[in-house]
């Protein structure tokens, strides 16, 4: 059994204690997720006929459709909270999870992410684009039907500004990109999940979440639009592989991808954050995260 270990991520300003035995604590509080019947689901085909679909890609069972977010936190007509939000409905099938879809469909979804990033980045004064997915009750999903979202704002969140500043400092001091260096290290280390010519996936050294995984293009790309067809396919294969593994243990998860339009030197990555663990007083009060699954063990799970 591993002893607890403090790990620091200086770029993302995170401190994590890896404490595997803590995952064996007793629990008597159950987490429930309420499913919506297809007849009441706003993302099923019948309901979408009543809404304005602003973008569509594919056909029949592989149709991906986009609608504006009906409950936006930001909008283009509100200067006090300026931004844009939309919902990407990943499949017309109500009971199919993203990880159960064929790789081709996931590749199509990433293609949609690329196209929508290009379109939204052209909106005046948009500086930051977040692509994200909530899956399961613990991850904040309010609807079962497979969907992801895009959240774009006229400002860059403070923690992203700090991350970019730290990455720039690293580059000045080392002469290289932090993420490029991390890829070189992780693709031959114990935290590797997948590595090929185009992408690398690994469990990060200072993982905040049990079974956390990152997927990065091996090339230094600042946004998803710049991926080639082959890179997109490899990215989709890695995402499909990881989500299938998470589905096998029925865990909620978030994934997200930051893109800062004012910084053309960042290295984009997709972070997959399983939400098996509920944060308590230590995490909320001290911001010191306790992770019950060592990333080395998480990588073994994914590779197995």
Report what the structure shows.
InterPro entries: ADP-glucose_phosphorylase, GalP_UDPtransf1, GalP_Utransf_N, HIT-like_sf. Zn(2+) binds at residues 41, 44, 94, 145. This is Galactose-1-phosphate uridyl transferase N-terminal domain-containing protein. The chain is α+β, with helices and mostly antiparallel strands and 304 residues long. Helices cover 28% and strands 23% of the residues. The chain contains 7 helices and 13 strands. It has a 10-stranded antiparallel sheet, sandwiched between helices. It has a 3-stranded mixed sheet with strand order 1-2-13. A hairpin with a 3-residue loop joins strand 8 and strand 9. Helix 2 packs across helix 5. The protein starts with a strand and ends with a helix. Mean pLDDT is 93; it is low at 23-33.
Summed up, what is this model?
This protein has 304 residues and is of the alpha+beta class. Helices cover 28% and strands 23% of the residues. It has helices at 45-48, 103-121, 158-174, 178-186, 229-248, 281-286, 295-303; strands at residues 5-9, 14-18, 55-57, 64-68, 83-89, 128-135, 147-153, 192-195, 199-202, 213-217, 253-260, 270-274, 289-291.
């Amino acid at each position: 059994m591993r002893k607890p270990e403090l790990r620091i991520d200086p770029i993302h300003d995170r401190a994590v204690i890896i404490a595997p035995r803590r995952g064996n604590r007793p629990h008597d509080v159950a987490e429930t997720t309420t499913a919506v019947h297809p007849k009441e689901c706003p993302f099923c085909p019948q309901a979408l006929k009543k809404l304005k679909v602003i973008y569509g890609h594919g056909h029949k069972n592989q149709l991906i459709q986009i609608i504006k977010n009906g409950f936006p936190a930001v909008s283009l007509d509100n200067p006090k909270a300026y931004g844009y939000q939309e919902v990407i409905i990943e499949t017309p099938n109500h009971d199919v999870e993203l990880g159960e879809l064929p790789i081709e469909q996931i590749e199509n979804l990433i293609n949609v992410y690329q196209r929508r990033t290009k379109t939204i980045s052209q909106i005046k004064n948009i500086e930051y684009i977040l692509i994200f997915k909530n899956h399961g009750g613990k991850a904040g999903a309010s609807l079962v039907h497979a969907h992801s979202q895009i959240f774009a704002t006229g400002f860059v969140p403070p923690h992203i500004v700090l991350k970019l500043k730290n990455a720039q400092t690293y580059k000045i001091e080392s002469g290289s990109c932090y993420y490029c260096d991390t890829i070189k290290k992780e693709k031959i280390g114990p935290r590797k999940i997948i590595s090929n010519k185009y992408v690398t996936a690994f469990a990060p050294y200072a993982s905040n979440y049990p079974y956390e995984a990152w997927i990065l293009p091996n090339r230094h790309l600042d946004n998803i639009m710049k991926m080639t067809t082959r890179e997109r396919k490899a990215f989709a294969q890695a995402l499909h592989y990881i989500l299938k593994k998470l589905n096998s243990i029925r865990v909620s998860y978030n994934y997200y991808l930051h893109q800062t339009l004012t910084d053309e030197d960042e290295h984009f990555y997709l972070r997959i954050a399983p939400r098996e663990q509920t944060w308590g007083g230590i995490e909320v009060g001290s911001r010191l995260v306790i992770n019950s699954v060592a990333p080395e063990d998480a990588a073994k799970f994914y590779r197995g």
